[in-house]
Automatic annotation (TrEMBL):
Protein name: Uncharacterized protein
Domain of life: Archaea
Length: 217
């Protein structure tokens, strides 16, 4: 399913957004991603903002990958300092990596593996037939041991041609007297995307906060 989604979503211009929240003991991590891409990923802008809070310490990180058919611009700022800012050729290896990032391959694969999904409904939406899959039983995985999961639910909406339009996942795990939580949301909006011909990092990202809580894109 994920392989079909990756292939078809890469061909479709649109905007992907996904957000992950996880907590464990005194640590919380929030990561927000927005990807705008033209057809066949001819032009892409990937922006990831994350925040890790451990006790009294907070670490913010922003990563931007902008690409056209031949070049890739990479930009990373961590803790307020620019850690990477360069332009390189768009190689075949990087193209495969960009394809995975642009279609949220890894987080979607994890969400699909962790649930025992059944068909909950079929409806027409945005000129496409969308199948809703739901799971309320945790199937296991590397994220949490199944015997520790106290609450779980997930929903995936996928078109009949295999493009995942949205997904949500919620997990609560309890073990050794502590509680851990995980939340994931994903949306793909097919629509025309206008990106610059030359890959660049938007000015507002260079001068703005890299706190994902401030992400309004």
């Amino acid at each position: 399913m994920v392989r079909t989604h990756r292939a078809n979503a890469a061909e479709t211009p649109g905007v992907v957004t996904h957000r992950t929240n996880s907590t464990a003991r005194n640590t919380s991590i929030v990561a927000a991603v927005r990807v705008a891409a033209g057809p066949n990923l001819t032009r892409v802008r990937y922006v990831s903002r994350s925040q890790r809070v451990a006790g009294a310490e907070t670490e913010n990180r922003t990563t931007v990958v902008a690409a056209n058919g031949t070049a890739v611009r990479q930009y990373t700022v961590a803790g307020g300092d620019v850690a990477l800012d360069n332009t390189r050729n768009r190689t075949g290896l990087f193209d495969r990596s960009l394809r995975g990032l642009s279609t949220a391959t890894n987080p979607l694969r994890g969400a699909l593996r962790r649930g025992n999904f059944t068909v909950a409904g079929v409806n027409d939406r945005d000129d496409a037939t969308v199948v809703t899959l739901r799971a309320d039983r945790y199937a296991g995985g590397q994220l949490y041991a199944a015997e520790n999961v106290a609450a779980y639910n997930a929903t995936v909406r996928i078109t009949t041609d295999g493009v995942i339009r949205s997904a949500t996942e919620r997990i609560v795990s309890r073990a050794d007297g502590s509680e851990r939580r995980y939340g994931f949301t994903y949306e793909f909006e097919p629509r025309p995307v206008d990106l610059p011909r030359v890959p660049r990092v938007p000015a507002e990202i260079r001068v703005g906060s890299d706190d994902p809580a401030n992400d309004r894109s």
